[in-house]
Each structure stands twice: as structure tokens, then as C-alpha cells.
Design goal:
about 20% helix, about 45% strand, alpha+beta, single chain, about 70 residues, 1 helix
């Protein structure tokens, strides 16, 4: 298994669990790299009803994934 930090953009359309959409903006080796990417992309211009977050994801790596 391999771990990657994924920068997600979450968009809310309401307050129930079916009212959210997510989009992956990239994968990073460290939490710090993920947070730096979020800062570079959005700085202080986050659109209304959206939030960027970094989440650690474990996945099955192929032999050629290094």
C-alpha cells in the first residue's frame, strides 16, 4: 500500500450529505506539499460554498509506482 496526500475541492449546495461535490486537484507526497499547493492555488480567494482540504489516502500501488 502507498499513501498520498490528495488536495480536494469540496463544493456545498446545501447542508445535507447529498449536497456536496468533490474534485481532486492533485496528489502530493507530504502534507506540507499539499498545503503549499492549496495556498498557491487559492491564496485568499476561496470561492463561496467551496473549501480546499488535504486528506491522506491509502491505495494499492503498482510495481511501477515509485
Amino acid at each position: 500500500m502507498k499513501v498520498v496526500w490528495v488536495l480536494l475541492l469540496v463544493t456545498g449546495y446545501g447542508f445535507d450529505s447529498d449536497s456536496f461535490e468533490t474534485k481532486s486537484l492533485g496528489g502530493y507526497d507530504t502534507m506540507a506539499e499539499c498545503h503549499v499547493a492549496a495556498t498557491q492555488i487559492f491564496w485568499e480567494r476561496m470561492p463561496m460554498n467551496q473549501e480546499a482540504l488535504c486528506i491522506r489516502v491509502e491505495y494499492q500501488a503498482n510495481d511501477d509506482d515509485d
